Structures are given as structure tokens and as C-alpha cells.
Amino acid sequence: MRLLIVGTLEGYITAAGKIAMKRGAKVSHTDSIEGALTALRAAAGADLVMIDVKLDIATFIDSLKSERITIPVVACGIGTDAAAAVRAIRAGAKEYLPLPPNAELIAAVLEAVAEESHSIVCSDPAMLATLRLAEQVAPSDASVMITGESGTGKELMARFIHRKSRRANEPFVAVNCAAIPENLLESELFGHEKGAFTGAVARRLGKFEEANNGTLLLDELSEMHPRLQAKLLRAIQEKEIDRIGSSQPVKVNVRLIATSNRNLEAEVRSGNFREDLYFRLNVFSVAIPSLRERPADIPMIAEHFLKKYAEANGLGDKRLTEDALLMLKAHHWRGNVRELENTMHRAVLLSRGEEVGPEAIMLTSKMLAPEGSAQASIPSDSPVANPFAGPGGTVPAAAPVQPAAPLVVPPQGGLPTSYGPTSYGPPKGGKPGPYGMPANGGAAAAAAAASANSGSAAGLAALIGRTVADVERDLILETLTHCLGNRTHAANILGISIRTLRNKLKQYGDEGRSVPAPGNDERATA
Length: 526
Description:
- The chain is α/β, with parallel strands linked by helices.
- The chain has 4 domains: 2-113, Response regulator (Rossmann fold, 3-Layer(aba) Sandwich), CATH 3.40.50.2300; 143-282, Rossmann fold (3-Layer(aba) Sandwich); 292-414, Helicase, Ruva Protein, domain 3; 443-513, Orthogonal Bundle (Arc Repressor Mutant, subunit A), CATH 1.10.10.60.
- 41% of the residues lie in helices and 11% in strands.
- The protein contains 21 helices and 14 strands.
- A 5-stranded parallel sheet has the order 2-1-3-4-5, sandwiched between helices. It has a 5-stranded parallel sheet with strand order 7-8-11-6-12. Strands 9-10 form a two-stranded antiparallel sheet.
- A hairpin with an 8-residue loop joins strand 9 (240-241) and strand 10.
- It is globular.
- The two termini are 43 Å apart.
- The model is unreliable at 374-456 (pLDDT under 50).
């Protein structure tokens, strides 16, 4: 949690900052609205703003909206000034905290923001059962191993366990073991003393000490080098760490959660992961199902990201059409929730109007479908398989699709239907069929899913013998055609800058390739 304090808070800034830091927040401060906007534009950013009620809150919130910066704002002022509180709420502040600062109130606000920022959206029984299991083990101090494919939300699950634990008011510190080089990871975890190595100009506390009394997440632990695994094992067993360059051990009290997208038992057998460390960490295991294994979550998660990115891009409310929803349900989702999030972000940028149709949904190739996946991309004879097949690149009329009924969790299962801000539970208004399955509908989606992904091997074989440059060129040109020549949208989808895209297109034109002309919107602004 990153907290930005704006103004003096009636002289209580030090007290408020100390309370927030004790609750695990990283606190920064600025005196003015201009300084706050500069800080929020920077890479560090913030998750919550606490602003002095004497400052112009309305102007600050209007500036945030104009720059499309989405962040909750909490106003702070003397508790007896009711008029100031009313003005702050009317200006757009989420809450009003009276001063002097109250530790419990600040903790409640920080917790509410943390839950809202890291919510788990689901309704499928498979995921609900996983959450119930995680909630059951959360109050203990047992180490937890979270496994699952890439993009399933392993860090979100770790945060969920932390919020439900007895350490919820203490720090939650995450370390990505795959993103930090081996020679730096030891210092990152255990810290170092001044002069311990070249460049160690001052003592630095490691993540173990930062997370003291709280929770330490070791993300992608399977990527850690075996030499460092031995030191980690000792830290877990002895509950003490040795800073690099120090002769004095430091006692630590942390709850460890580890994640991996690999089969750790196979890694142990191959000698890449220490067996003793595996059994030390794997006191309790939580396996997150892939998105393919919880299809009832797809509509709910898609709507969640649709709303999120529509707001982030300053657009109005958008909704998925039935044909677009059919495409999503039939896809293989190799990248799981992360892939679905990116797909909905693209859809928001490509769609025009309030409805998001098949023409705005760009899915990954069948060649990326997991081996043995029961789901496949849209069949070639589906009306949504080629959304630009109509005259002039228009979308052909699609046959009406019977919508699937919302899936409802059977009450005899005893699963919770509401967990407050995390908002996971069955959708309202649904009628259950046998064993909690949808009572009707879903036939069209089932037919699409049953279509075998027979073209995967043939499509992959077609790439063999071609150069990377050739494949890249075809991908860029086909994406540009899909975007009707719009360079900006194509660059966003491809994940490259508009300048890089233009340079590539100029190169292809010089080579005699046919390059789609700019879209109407771009020609109008040229």
C-alpha cells in the first residue's frame, strides 16, 4: 500500500504517517496539489491520497479526472468542522477522517482500499472452493505454497490469505524471485551492511526484515538458484537471517507464502529445487484452477475489466454483446485471467459505442492452446469467426445466441455467497440446475467448445521454415487490417510504440508490400 499525504493535516502529518507505516503502508508527502499531481504522474505513484481539507479538493479531483488518474481520495480535517467534511465529500472525496488521527480509522481505510485494489472476482464453484480452503488456513502461521498456471492470480490469492490472517494489520511484502538477478536477490532478501560489497554505501534492510511480524511472498520461488535456497532454508528453520557483511544474526518473525507456475515435485526430482526446502514450505498447498477449469467466471471477470478500462480511458459504460461473450467462452485462455484482462483492454480501445461486439475481440492463435485443452477458438464456420468478412469490412449479421443462465452455487455446499469488498460469490437472480450447473442455455458455447482444435498442428507446421521477420511482418499487417488502418489502435494491440510501427510500415512499403491506408480518424487529424 502506497500512501501519499498532501498538506500539513493540521500539524498531525507525523502522527498520521507513523500510524500508516505501522499498518504496512509506504508513506510519501508533498505540500501542494501541484506536487501531488507530479508525484502521481511519476512511476512510483500511490494507492491512496490523504489530503488536507483546507486545500482545494475539488480542483485536485477534477485534475485527476482530466488526466485519467484513478485513485481514492480521503480528506482530513478537524473533527468538529462538519461543514468542511460536507464540502470535501461533495467535491468527490471518498471519506472524511477527523483529526487528531485515529489508528483504527486509518487502518480501516487502508484495509478497505487494499481489498478494493486486490479483489478476487469469481462465481465458479471450483474457484469458490479454492477460496474457502484458503480462508480456512489463513488464520494459522503455516507456510503456504500456491501453485497454478501463469496468469491465474497467485499473488492475489496470497494477498487474500494475508488479509484473512492474524497478521492482516502488519506488512505484506512481495519479492519476485524470477525478476531479480541471482547476485542481487540475496541482498534483496536478507539485506547488507555498509561496505559489504562494492556499491554498498549504506546499510540496507532486506525483505525479511521489512516483512517482520507480517507476511513475505516469494513469487516464482522455483526460479531461485539452489545456492540461495540453502540460505533460505536456514532462515525458515532458525527464524533468523544474516545480512551480507554482518556477523550478527537478526531474529525475524514472518509468515511465508510461496508461488510457482511449475511442477515443483518434478523440479525436485530433476535436482533443480531442494527437497528439504520444498517440504518446509509446502505445509499447506493451494492450487488455483486455470480459467479453462472455471468457465462460469469468464463473463463476470470480462465485465469487471470492461468497466475498469472504460473508466481508466475516460469512456462511458460498455457492455458485451452475446456474440462477443460466445467468443470469450469458447477460447482456450492459455494466459488465463491475465490474457482475458488484456483482451478486454484491447476491446475497450477498439469498440465504438456502448456495445463491445466480436469485431473488437482479438484472441490469441489456436497454436497457443494448451495441449489437450477441451476448449478451442471459434470454429471457422461460426458467424463470429471472421468479424470483417462482410462487405467493406463490416460485421455480418450473426444468428441469435441463447444466453447461458448465471451459475449458482448449490446451498448444500456451504460455500459463502458474499465476502464483502472482494465480491466473489454467485451472480444474483440465477436459477440452479442439477448440482448447481446452469439450468438452461450454454448449448451454443458447448458446441463451439466441442469443435476440435485440429488446425493447431497444421498451423504450427506452416510457420516452420519462415523467418521471425516474415512472421512479424504478417502479424503487424494483419493487425493493422483488423484495425481498419488505425495506427494508434494497432500499436496498442501489438504492444509497440506508434513510432516503431510507422518505421516498420515504411520499411514494408519500401520493400513493395501493400500497407493498409490510415483510418478515417487519423486522416482527419493528419
